[in-house]
Hints:
The chain is mostly helical. The chain is built from 3 helices and 2 strands; from the N terminus they run αααββ. It has helices at residues 5-14, 24-42, 73-77; strands spanning 83-84, 87-88. Strands 1-2 form a two-stranded antiparallel ribbon. The termini are far apart.
Amino acid sequence: MSIDKDTARKVAHLARIAVREEDLPALAGELSAVLAFMEQLNEVDVTGVEPMTSVTPMRLKRRVDEVTDGGIQAQVLKNAPDAREGFFAVPKVVE
């Protein structure tokens, strides 16, 4: 798939990237190269290959999923700029 100048301009606009008019052909070429590489990756046979989240095999440590009340309200609120009656106090924004 080939990207033209107009499509590159539209992509730059959507991405909120300022691209000068003379740089659009280079951007279009780079985007076309990315899409060509993605098409090349689609041709690879991956049957039997499990998806992975990391290149190193590891198991995440698990903890018991138990419901608690937290019990650290004072610790949480000690960093608050303004706390009243056990809650964060925030400035009024709607009158």
